[in-house]
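Case study.
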Amino acid sequence: KAGVTQTPRYLIKTRGQQVTLSCSPISGHRSVSWYQQTPGQGLQFLFEYFSETQRNKGNFPGRFSGRQFSNSRSEMNVSTLELGDSALYLCASSLEYRGAATDTQYFGPGTRLTVL
Amino acid sequence: AQSVTQLDSHVSVSEGTPVLLRCNYSSSYSPSLFWYVQHPNKGLQLLLKYTSAATLVKGINGFEAEFKKSETSFHLTKPSAHMSDAAEYFCVVSDRRGTDKLIFGTGTRLQVFP
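After joint prediction, the assembly is written out as follows.
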């Protein structure tokens, strides 16, 4: 079974631009979560989607948004990019909404975004 | 609220010697605890998880961790390090209600010397 895939793997943008990242979960997985990883802040939760609905959200500004499609694929968008948005953005999928508590998240390789 | 503290930012061992990566947690509810590994330029891979079954959890690649409620610890161990174990390791906590997100520790970078 194919793992979580993220596209693109690398991205370079300039300040003020916007960017869209894509995540395809493992087949059959219905929950998708997004994380930002930076050297200074570590791994931080962005948001989680299940059945096309945002179920949980981290402490990020409104410039960060996401959505999930009926096939469980997810996209996240960052508008008005800032230098501090440079990071590795990781997507993770799980079978069900994490309310199951025991559900394991499987991570993709990430998209490395560089903002110049 | 949940939190997790990885007590060492860097750990260095020689190949063939034991590995100990330390993690303490704080949780208002019975936690689920995880260890993930991240190799350079790769995503995170689940090593093992604790969800209130056996307190000694065995994972992949010879790793195991023991949940100690009295010490609020979930240390990761491996009897004999291999060069391929060199990576960053994250201890993660999540409360059982599932209403909270995963909380990641700051990571421990493991170096393995020949």
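Observations recorded in class. The first strand of chain B starts at residue 3 and ends at 6. The interface with chain A takes residues 32, 34, 36, 41-46, 49, 51, 90, 94-107 of chain B (CB under 8 Å). We will return to this complex in the next lecture.
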